[in-house]
Amino acid sequence: WDQGKAEITTYDLKQARYGEIHEGTANTIFVTEPFSKSKQVKLDNANGNAEDNVPVLKLNFTRKFFTGVYPYSTMLSVFTPQDLKQNPNSLKVVFGAQEWCGQTYTQLNLSSSGYDMEQYSYFESEGDTENNIPIAMLEDELMTHIRLNNGQLPLGDIDLITSVLYSRFTHKKLQVAKANISKTEFDNVLNYNIKYLDFNRVINIEVETEFPHKILAWTEDDGNGLVTEARLLKSMNEPYWSQKSVEDESKRKELMLDK
């Protein structure tokens, strides 16, 4: 991984429900960072805190789409240690969603007892809650594990913590569930099928066989008529944090963000 740049990828996003198609855009930003294991935030001085530093691969995953007149905007952040043998579980997950009804926010922090969850929502039934979820692989870390583990995921039946986005959009409790992961390979593409065993949700992820194992496409079928599809449009490696001038706006066109 290039320490001085991030991989920024734009996807064409489509959500279909009973014949209606809502179009949008998704972006994944993969970048390496020094991360504090104790505070679970980015380290400002990694060299001066070597014992606390856990280098991570950070994924910022955004989706923007419209449903009728009003817009949705979501962002997922996942912080996965680069050394999965020494630290096999993501240290932190953050999710936020904004739409014209209101906002929701969920955060998971890895502790010795599991994932400590805080959730804030404008829905009365969800409210402001705290919970602890047993340690298991996260659906939300599947893409970071693919990128760090030579394109590979564990196969067979596993325990999987459901996606925070799925939990929020379906208003279901975030929990550990049984899932099956299978893999097929064709024409230099790995296709992973992730199927939950106790309820209807199926995810497919297409991955480049060769390094850097880019995510080429994915689909999510919630079993309730809602199917989300995304396919890669453009990918660039850029130090986006330093591209803040008006002249840098041309990068948006290159990334097909103004299509």
Task: Sum up the overall morphology in one term.
Answer: globular
Spatial ordering of strands, largest sheet: 8-7-6-5-4-3-2-1-15-14-13-12-11-10-9
Percentage of residues assigned to helices: under 10%
Separation of the first and last Cα atoms? 29 Å
Structural class: mainly beta
Mean pLDDT: 93
Low-confidence stretches: none
Output the helix-strand order.
EEEEEEEEEHEHEEEEEH
Strand content: over 45%
- Count of alpha and pi helical runs: 3
> Care to count the β-strands?
15
Instruction: Calculate Rg over CA atoms.
Output: 18 Å
Largest sheet: 15 strands, mixed
Description:
The protein has 259 residues and is mostly beta strands. The chain has helices spanning 142-148, 164-170, 250-254; strands spanning 6-17, 20-33, 56-67, 70-81, 92-99, 102-111, 114-121, 129-133, 137-138, 156-161, 176-186, 189-196, 202-208, 215-221, 226-238. Helix content is 7%, strand content 52%. The chain is globular and about 55 Å long. The relative contact order is 0.15.
